[in-house]
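Ticket reopened. Same input as before:
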Amino acid sequence: MRKPSEVKVVIIGGGIVGTSLAYELAKYQLEAVLIEKEAELSFGVSKSNSGIVHTGFQDDPSSLKAQLAVRGNQLYREMAKLLDFPFIPTGELVVAFPGEREQIEHIRENGERLGIPRLEIVEGAWIREHEPNLSTEIECALLGPTAAVINPYEVIYAMAENAASNGVTINCSNEVTALERESDCWAVRTSESEYKAHYVINAAGLSADTISQMAGIPAPRIIPWKGEEFILDRHADRLTQSIIFPVPQKETKGILVIPTVDGNTMIGPTAEEIDDKDDITTSEAGKKKVLRSIQRIVPCVREDQIIASFSGLRPAIAENEFYIREERDGFVNIVGIKSPGLTAAPAIAEYVVQMLAKKMKLSPRKGYIATRSAIPRFRHLSSDERNRLIREDPGYGEVVCRCELVTKSEIREAIKRGARTLDGVKFRTRSQMGRCHGAFCTMKIMEIMAEELGVTYDQITKRGRGSELVMESHELKAL
Amino acid sequence: MAAAVGAAEGGLKKILILERLPRLGGILNQCIHLGFGLTYFKEEMTGTEYAARYKKMVYERDIEARTSCFVHTITPQKEITFVCADGEYTVSAKHIVMATGCRERTREMLTVPGTRPAGIFTAGLAQEMVNIYGVMPGKEVVVIGSGDIGLIMARRMTLEGATVHAVLEILDHLSGLIRNKVQCLDDFGIPLYLQHEPLEIIGRDRVEAIRYRNNQTGEHKILPCDTVLFSVGLIPEQDLLIDAGIEPGNGIHLVGNADYIHDYVDAVTREAEKLGRLLA
Ligand SMILES: Cc1cc2nc3c(=O)[nH]c(=O)nc-3n(C[C@H](O)[C@H](O)[C@H](O)COP(=O)(O)OP(=O)(O)OC[C@H]3O[C@@H](n4cnc5c(N)ncnc54)[C@H](O)[C@@H]3O)c2cc1C
Ligand SMILES: Cc1cc2nc3c(=O)[nH]c(=O)nc-3n(C[C@H](O)[C@H](O)[C@H](O)COP(=O)(O)OP(=O)(O)OC[C@H]3O[C@@H](n4cnc5c(N)ncnc54)[C@H](O)[C@@H]3O)c2cc1C
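Engineering reply: fixed in the latest deploy. New output:
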């Protein structure tokens, strides 16, 4: 094994929490490394969720969770401008059927205590006018204008690119296997290398309890809570303008209608406690349950509009609260980050960095780059912009993914920025996400990957080792 | 191509074919099996030969054919916008013939429960992998659906050294052609299970098995495999019209698989030629 690298901070886990930390730490003059076991960032629960930046009013106003969610919501607005990712302020409605008015009034009071602006209860007539697809049985609703939707993986790649441009090292396909306290630092051993770090931040999501154990530090046990989500065809139009919530259930926010960044509607998630941290199956029962709940709110939703489904596991713990603390010797645990973890992540990072600032001197990074620009999205450009791009690079005139209008140069750019798998290309470009689910473009994308990465087809994977697409190539390479 | 040839035969002068792929021919280019042209050319040939024959007919006539040109918008005023390596262009036409073919229904549309590992392909994608790229999508194969492409691919995969364990069909009858069942399954000893429904895809990173139910007996079975091919129907590709909210008519025509799904290319050809002549 190579000589261990010495760094100030090791972050374990490249989900939204770990990557937010990388982005936040990049602002300071120190050496940080982010370690992720999967082939790319965002392959844990952070890619499989509802993508909502919540207002924060669904949680107990005295909890850390609620406060970090409210702060996270503010931070996303700034970040979206700096890092050039879509942040769509759809707003949300918590709808009340007869007999539920009191509950939404209670939520509004909670929200106001947290300082969430512009909360308002709207009546039936307003709802009929603004959300004509909602059930006419809905009596009134709480309007939270600050809620928004994002594509979580786009945010992660944006933050990671910015962090990397400021000198943070990002190492994927690198699993932390052991943690040991040495005289004045932590030895972090991984499947690929070893690091010596003064601070270790455990943002390992579903495995955060295991990582803590490796360090010999007790932490709450993670109980996976599965959520299944279903995506509707874009021809089904925007069913609703804002995110629609029922009144909250005991453990979750209920089953929602989510107008996604990409213009599809998503419905879900379910909530079910399970034992297996690998169980990301979707089920017939889950689909039926989601449809039943949603049809009560939006009666026109049909089963045959579903074009895709996925499921994610919330890394829950027994207590309904985030567990964030510096344990000892510079080891920070971030455990139990279930919903609204996506919303809170930038604020969690800020909170943890403030915690570290008490222990070490943080000075602003010299030559800090505050911005990052996105891969051009051919689909969203004007004709003049398209022609300008094509003149500079004819690859922007080659459409690879016909359903989502993604060009060859966008795929190439995704690979240049770190995509190593088909899913990585998908999350960065939206190719393969449309109606044909990759039937038309998979091979064309693999061809570009083979070319750009200098690999053979049988080395290309869907999402990392073990998920190879082709078994063996008989390619005539040297022709 | 057939619509263009028909129109040229009828005397029409300004004909433009726009094709998104680098070559003309459409799906025929990946159909390297026999069974094309029996009624139209009165001889049996492969899809690729059929396409080549037709390309020649296009090039011999006064037809402009542009490949690697992707049409992304059409308007009710019959303006067509396409992109290619030299830029984005809009042209207008008196008639637009939409011969955009079809796409395959996918696992997601059936919403088959389970995991989402590598190793799940539509039969048409598998055909492209094997016949165009020369790569093998897998070794231990189960085909879902008894559509023609699935049957053809069951044979093709077998010929390439894979084991095809079964073709599962939820209906009580074959959905492809009898000819294909005999030549592609029976001749290779591949079983066709009718009234069998896929219930779950199993496998974390790569497909490991499929669970299915015999709907007659209610019996569940788990069949280990590394690849699942879906051949569960084709959908006419009419998105350009749907996106623009246009109905066919008024100089906008659908033909071939874009209109409805055909079993034989010969029928597609005849209908398209007829349409072409009509427009001239
Ligand atoms: C169905 C569903 C819907 C949700 N909807 C929302 C929502 O709308 N809004 C919202 O705010 N929140 C939502 N959430 C919650 C949100 O998704 C999570 O709180 C958040 O993604 C947690 O991020 P994370 O970075 O902690 O975890 P992860 O994204 O799982 O990141 C942890 C990373 O650590 C890596 N790792 C693990 N072990 C190791 C190791 N040994 N070495 C190296 N790396 C390791 C993992 O591979 C993983 O990538 C939802 C959750 C679910 C399941
Ligand atoms: C596996 C298989 C086996 C078959 N076996 C037989 C057989 O044995 N015998 C037989 O007679 N028939 C067979 N057929 C049927 C026959 O080949 C097809 O019905 C026929 O070729 C369809 O022709 P088409 O022109 O309608 O569609 P396609 O061949 O699909 O052509 C559509 C073309 O439009 C292009 N296009 C689509 N959208 C755009 C856009 N936006 N811009 C630009 N271009 C676009 C596509 O790239 C494609 O080239 C088979 C088909 C398949 C798939």
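Chain B has eight helices and 20 strands. Chain B touches chain A through 47 residues (CB under 8 Å). Please confirm and we'll close it.
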